[in-house]
Amino acid sequence: MSPRPLLFLLLTSLLSACQPATEPTRIEGRTMGTFYAVTLADPFPGGQQALQQQVDALLVKLNHEISTYEPDSDISRFNQAKDALAHPIPSDMAKIVEQGITAGQVTKGLLDVTVGPLVNLWGFGPDKRPVKTPDEAAIAAARERVGIDKLHLTRQGEQFMLSKDHPDLYLDLSTLGEGAGSDAVAALLDKAGIQNYLIELAGAVRSKGHNPKGKPWRIAIVDPSDKPGAFQGIVTPKGMAVSTAGSYRNYYELDGQRYSHIIDPRTGRPIAHKLVSATVITPTALEADAYDTALMVMGPDEAMAFAKARQMAVYLIVKGDKGFEARYTPQFEPYLAK
Ligand code: FAD
Q1: For the chain: N or C, fewer Cβ within 10 A?
Q2: Chain-centre distance for alpha carbon 174
Q3: What residue ranges do the domains of the chain occupy?
Q4: Directed axis angle between helix 285-298 and helix 300-309, to 10°?
Q5: What's the CATH fold of domain 74-174?
Q6: Per residue in 31-74, pLDDT tens?
């Protein structure tokens, strides 16, 4: 899969070129088939090299736990087990699975971390792209293996355990991995006493304090038209996490039809409505990353109703006849830069 460009543009790099108040520390790298960048307005203990080593080690460890692209990761070993036994899993992975199960219950299965067989059937997992559109029988067979009710997270003392009712259940935490990674880097920086930072891991962003110019961090929601540098809105996160899911980057066309990587478990098919981007602001990137995908499954009207009912800070971009229209909840307004 080609690396997914960031769904946000970091605007501080585009702002006036006045000299930063402090020399920023910035590292970049690749993880989870995409990119990350960490910018600090404070020095890191041990300098840039120590920061790069510690962040990369943390992300490699996370991949060893939840990457379905690594055949011997904890998640892959769980998916390969064809039994109903309770398998021990690392506590970090358990926290991610727990968020997936909670969001699955709250969204009545629209976010479903067991949706992997459908994701793979439509070619958005580690397997190859299909050469022909999956037929009804293949979709039905894959759907039979899906359902958050088939997955069970338990504890034996301090040890988290995971089990499944269907031997071919396939756990896919792709929708949560970036948020989990962004939160883990934030925890590392907090522990090191860093007060001013911005973390972007694909579409999942965490920030704290101010940018190297002493101003609030400002990030942009990319315009789905993909015109270079075009953006829909500018967000000042105010220490909250921001995550965006979109259907306009990760897709392919087959038999004249466009298929995106967001799957509606109700139909077993990629979504086919006009909502092209959903941005969510919550205290953690893990939670925001769970709900941005769920909103994408819902479509424009259901997503807005869901967000308003829960007083969530949500920003939707809907494709209209005359271009893209932004819709956002009252809770999102305070984060929009004037
Ligand atoms: P999001 O909207 O955050 O998530 C969409 C993804 O969630 C889809 O790609 C699908 O996997 C899944 N999904 C779709 N519909 C639903 C649904 N209804 N409910 C729940 N989940 C759904 N990609 C590579 O090409 N190479 C790699 O080496 C690689 N390694 C990875 C390692 C890890 C640890 C993780 C978590 C992912 C990895 N990926 C890799 C996958 C890649 O990062 C994903 O495409 C990306 O995570 C999707 O995130 P997103 O923000 O684009 O979309």
Answers
A1: C
A2: 7
A3: 74-174
A4: 140
A5: T-fold (1.10.3980)
A6: 999 999 999 999 999 999 999 999 999 999 999 999 999 999 99
How does strand 275-282 pair with strand 313-320?
Answer: antiparallel
Contact criterion met (CB below 8 Å) for 312 and 210: no
Give 208's Cβ-side CA count (13 Å radius).
20
Closest Cα to residue 246, out of 172, 175, 170?
A: 175
Distance of CA 126 to the CA centre of its chain: 17
Ligand 1 neighbours by CB, cut-off 6 Å: 1, 4, 32-34, 63, 66-67, 69, 111-113, 115, 119, 124, 172-175, 177-178, 202-203, 245, 250, 261-263, 265, 289, 293, 297
Query: Is the separation of the CB atoms in 231 and 221 below 8 Å?
Result: yes
Nearest CA to ligand 1 atom 39: 32
Per residue in 223-275, pLDDT (tens digit) is 888 677 777 889 999 999 999 999 888 888 888 888 999 999 999 999 999 99
> Within 10 Å of residue 45's Cβ, how many Cβ atoms?
11
